[in-house]
Write a structure and sequence with these properties.
Pfam families: DnaJ. Belongs to the DNAJC25 family. Helices cover 70% and strands 0% of the residues. The longest helix has 33 residues, at 126-158. By secondary structure, it is mainly alpha-helical.
Amino acid sequence: MKLTLEVFIIITTIVNNLNFCHAFLEGLYCGQDNCYDVLGLTRGTSKEEISRSYRALARKWHPDLHRGDEAKAIATEKFQLIAQAYEVLRDDESRRDYDYMLDNPEEYYHHYYRYYRRIYAPKVDVRIVIVVTITLISVYQYYASNSRYKEAIDYFVTVPKYRIQAKDIAMDEGIWPTVTSTSDGKSRLKQRGPGNKQKLKEELKQEEDACIRKVIEDKMNIEGAYSKPSYKDILWVQLFLIPVFIVQYIYWYARWIYKFDIKKEPLGLVEKHYLIRKFMNLSEFQWAQKDPNEIDEYMREELWIRENFEPWKQKKDDEIRAKLAENPAYKRYRRYLRKGGPGQITFLDD
């Protein structure tokens, strides 16, 4: 019985010593030193007492107050340890993590995680970062879209075909600038006098260009990447409209099931187009760019019916493969692949 008690005491002492040894981890907080002991404090010390103790010790161990290389080196090391202990204990979150390490020395992996997470984690609220990021993306989206739209308009203004069409529209609507198009109906040439004909021509040219640009902007429907920018396309608005999109989709899907699966109503034109577009894996924009004659062919073939679409698709694929087989460029590409393809060097002639 006496031997068992002695063994128990020895084991308890070893465990306590192990916990004590592992209470301080190298590279974390104050290393192998106790931050409270470094500042001469206890765990119940207030923040004001921590600051006072730090200032007193910092004045005492400042390297500039010590002479000699050895004394200065010792003071520098001591001063850095004091500063480190102060940084750990003056912050509530850091102090709380440090106290947790003292109370739970065996969780050393957890201590490393908490310590480095606090050091390297962003100091700014993550919500602010998200809001600023979304805002910057939205601003860039609108700016880029507006730049592309202006680029498209600038191009169309230089194309003679569109200039002639825009001029005809402007003349039909009575907005085309002329020499007599003043508010009082008098000739601008008479108002300016005979010496200003060149200047009048330049003004008329500028007004004509502005008129053509306005007509093109108002009348031309530009879609795709160069379409007119809209606030609905920016990220912030899209995020706010997500619940609306979800509700619209649920309503559309429920309506489809009710009308066409339960009541067995005949499909309308919009529904037929949707099914054809779905079978072809086309977006709404891609479908809108389709030639009306192609869409008429799809409708004649009744491609909204899966049983009609599959053989039609197979037939089209066979026609494309037959055309490619007769294409000289495709033949050269096939020979290139047979000889090794990309990354291969060959001296064989085609």
